Structures are given as structure tokens and as C-alpha cells.
Amino acid sequence: MRQKLLLFVLALVLTTITISAREKYAIVIHGGAGVMSRDKMSEELRTEYKAKLNEALVLGKKMLQEGASATDVVVKVINVMEDSPLFNAGKGAVFTHDGVNELDASIMEGKTQNAGAVSGVRDVKNPICAARAVMDNSEHVMLSGAGASEFAKLQGLEIVPNKYFYTERRYQSLQQLLKKERERTKKDNMGTVGCVVLDQDGNLCAGTSTGGMTNKKYGRIGDSPIIGAGTYANNNTCALSCTGHGEYYIRLGFARDISALVEYKNLSVAEACHEEIKKLSEMGGTGGVIGLDADGNIAMEFNTSGMFRGYIKSSGEKDIAIFKNE
Ligand code: ASP
User: Fold this and answer.
1) In-domain check, residue 11
2) Which is nearest to 245 in space by CA: 218, 271, 273, 284?
3) Is 192 a known active-site residue?
């Protein structure tokens, strides 16, 4: 009897140690990766970006403290960035070759492996909400174009005219590209947004939202709405959201490959992200990724000169940065 009691107490102590060694909750976000130079970005603009990233993180932390699910937090945190003209998602989406805005988004839950995505939508104010509705309220994983909009409308989501997404900065980027007929994918796509969350129940969720690539044609779709390319989550491995030149991410099966490196090679999420970014570089692609595992270990890797990024943990640890080595 005494032995049994001792064993019980030992098990209790071990469980307590394991739980307290694990972060109770954590959030990592990105606001796009790309060519960024410290000299060319004004102090004022840097401050503006950091303030918006901070607003998103603070909202997410408050929700998690109050017991919100990882999925609710991913959606609300991404909404903050979608509603800002600073990012290439929602309000600040880039323009297609034809001068309209077509948006993509996806979300995936780590516990259930449920996922939802929309691609090429022109009138859904917050595409990440539509992605979530596809996950929760349909039997599909991805809906596209007019059909996705019709579904979003039926779900009661906010529909806006395409001109809502007009911003002078993104419009001028398209005009420059059209004028110079330069390689169409190399400029000002920066600003895709993403979020990965670990909630108090130990569940992971990942989400990504984007306007895609400036000057895109023929209904081009990138990696962001593709589960396994731009977004992936599995409680047993990690949650991931990507940003960068989508064609490379699709070919690499980027996010799913990172999860496989964690699962099969036993790499940490940071090591796996690092290895995958190396593969991206070898292929000639550019971009970044954020990752998080169920113990609250984070990753923020990129091969560009900068990536808007930040994280916050229940321990209070927090950082927001833009450039490499910052
Ligand atoms: N990955 C996005 C796309 O290819 C763009 C980006 O993240 O910058 O559509």
C-alpha cells in the first residue's frame, strides 16, 4: 500500500514537472519576407510595422490567457493584419496583372488535421474567416473564385466590393512592373501574413493569408492556400506558416516536408525549418517560415534580408523584428 502511494506521488510530481516545463501557450506571427534594406525603410514605417505586429500579438496573448482555442486565436490575429494596409493580405493585397485583387488563405488544426482554404476570392473582406468556414462548415478543403465567395456569403461573412482592396502603394507597384515588363514575380509581394498558435489545451493551429504575387496572371494560385505547401499543423510535430515565392514552396511540399523532418528525423522545429530553407535556397527560391511545436519551441527562418516577425510566450518572453540579425 505504501509503495503504491509512493508511486502515485512520484507520478504526480513527474506530471507537474512536465507540464510546467512546457510553455502553456505561445504565438508566432509573420508579415511576409523579402528584400528589405534598413536604409530604405524609414524609421516611421518600421515603427508602424512593429506596432501592428505588437497589436496582433497582444490580442492573441489576451485571448489565450482567457482560454481561447488556437484556432480562434489564429483567425483573430490574422484579422488584425488583414485589416491593415501594411500587409499583402486583406486590405493591403497586391494587384493582379488585370488590376484587381485576388486573395488566398488557409488554416489547419493540429489535433484533428482538419483544414480549410479559399483561393482567388475578390470580395471576401477577411479570407482567413472564409478558410475557417470551409474547414468547419463544409465537407471540402479548398474552394475557389466565385464559388468560394458564394459560400462565404451564405456563411454570413463580410463581403466588400473589390475596390475596398485598393491601396495606392500596391497599385503603383503593379504600374511599375507593367511599365518595365520586368520579371513579374520579383517585386513588392512582401507582406503575406501568417500565425501559428499553441493553446492552453496543448493544441496547435496554423493559418496564412495573402494577396499573392503582384502582376499574377491566368488565375495563378501560390502556396498560401495549399495545405502542406504554405500551411500545415499536426500536434505531434509542429504548426507552420510560410511566406515567399509560392511556386518553390509548392514544388517542395514545403510545410509538410518540415513536419516530416520533425517526425521521421527527430529534428527540432527550428532545425527542420532551417534545413527546409536550405533546400529552398538550393532550388533558387526565396522566403521564410514560422513554426511552433506543442512544447512551445519556436522557429522563424528565412533566406531574405528580412521578414516581419514576432512571437510571445506565456512565460512573458517576446520579440518583434524585421531585419536579419535584429
Ligand atoms: N507565398 C505567397 C504566394 O506565392 C506570396 C508571399 O508570401 O510573399 O502567393
Assistant:
1) no
2) 284
3) yes
